[in-house]
Records
---
Amino acid sequence: MAVSWCLYDYGRVIKMKKPYTITSTGRVQQVGFRGYAEDLCRQLVPRAITYNVGEDQMKIICEAEEDTVDRLCQLLKEYKLAEITEVKIEEGIQFPHSVGRATTALEQELFTRIDSGVRILEDMNESVKLLENMNQSVKLLENMNEKIGLLENMNENIRNIKHDTEALHDMKIILERIERKL
């Protein structure tokens, strides 16, 4: 059980950081989620360890203030590629049942680069969606341009009909004059 500590410094209460274990459950592996969590930990909770558990969990052991842990959990839920069903916060350190291996600096560098690649691919996926939307817009504009061409042809035909109608009217007047003379 974790103990909450407070120090008193000349009448001020200073909150002490407590140990926490954060468990994210769902589709959190093979999607760059642990790298994302490690980046967040480096920003918010520098004293943290991340590791996968089974096939559907990723845990963070950290030492932080409660509001920082709450913020970290909120940001974890925002990761788009993971399908998180639950984020559980427990006070205290919940060690893994077994650790298969420790990560070397070289492996960590590799994981970081792979996770960066996943983020780049995610951005590219968004760009492809935008391009598909732009392609649909271009097709709509081409369709509209074709319809405008048809309207211009119709206008030209109407002008020709008007011109022909005026010519027929002039012919009628000439024929009436000829008829009067006969």
---
Amino acid sequence: MIRLTPSPKPLAAIIKPIVKEAVQEALKSNERRANQSIASERAFLTVRQAAETSGLGSSTIRLLIRKRQLRAQKVGRRIVIKRNDLEKFLEANPMEIKPDKSYA
């Protein structure tokens, strides 16, 4: 009886890239979660972080700042928004979801 067992070297060559890719993906996922948790703890947010937190676009956040509806501060070249100011703005200006007329 002849046994055909693969040698460990070709098997390792197949598995190594798969494991490497899975580890890199897990590290990126953990890094994203860490960045999100750090942003959620900060007292000040950048325009991008404010957009991600509120679900609005960055351009909308900038427009609200320009119209002076949302308070912001310029620190060097950056524009920062107090988390409390963003939360107050969102609570004071609830967004209405209007049903599409084609479904009515």
---
Amino acid sequence: MENFSLNGVYEVGNELLDAQHKVILNYMAKVYTYLLADKKGDDLFGLTSRLDTYCKLHFLDEEKIMEEMELPEIQEHKAQHALFVTHLENFMGRYEESDSVKNIDELVFLKGWFMEHIEVFDKRYAEFRKRLDKMVHESIQQAAHKNNPT
């Protein structure tokens, strides 16, 4: 049985994005359960549609945050998002036609890709955010010291 949960290692330090990561994995877990039971039809289609929509909304939120902090690698990160969406849409286009074992393998691939994306790419913007926050804090400290050199 696949594990679709996140632990603290995958947290990026943004409550919204961390919560969204968990919701995405929850949707994946539900789709996985349906595939294991070889259930197809409207319920599975609805779940995969919600997964697709939620991923796209999450990526928009994440990209907005990266734009606001002027992340240097934003284009590379956006390309990763586009690649994931392509894989997900391919999965959605085939899941009713294919056998359950292949679908399960594809979903496990998507989950692994998503987890690795958080661990590698999302951690980069989290570290960049920490450096920005530290620089702002130091700048405020220096300004305060200049204005009040006691």
